[in-house]
Amino acid sequence: MKPLIKLMTLTFLLSGLVYAGLLAGFDYSEGSEFKLWKFIFNACFFGLFMALMARYNYKKQNKKKEISIS
């Protein structure tokens, strides 16, 4: 697996699940019941955003390395 795809997949899963879990925990502590659709939406939306940011940072860092080599 390419490093960029691996980075994006791990970032998507970890950040999305942690964020959605924290939000579900806050909802539960306030007395709301667990809503699966809200959990999935939060995990996907935040995970996708963080994966795109990780991709941008990865490419930016590699571009700097290429410039300093040449």
Please give the alpha-carbon distance between the first and last residues.
27 Å
Please tally the helical runs, counting DSSP H or I stretches of 4 or more residues. 2
Q: How many extended strands? A: 0
Number of domains: 1
Percent of residues in β-strands: under 5%
Strand-pairing-aware structural class: mainly alpha
Largest sheet properties:
none
Can you give keywords for this protein?
70 residues; mainly alpha; 2 helices
Characterise the protein shown here.
- By secondary structure, this protein is an all-alpha fold.
- It has one domain (about 5-65).
- About 85% of the residues lie in helices and about 0% in strands.
- The chain is built from 2 helices and no strands.
- Helix 1 (about 5-30) packs antiparallel against helix 2 (about 35-70).
- It is elongated.
- The chain starts with a helix and ends with a helix.
Quick description:
The chain has 70 residues and is mainly alpha-helical.
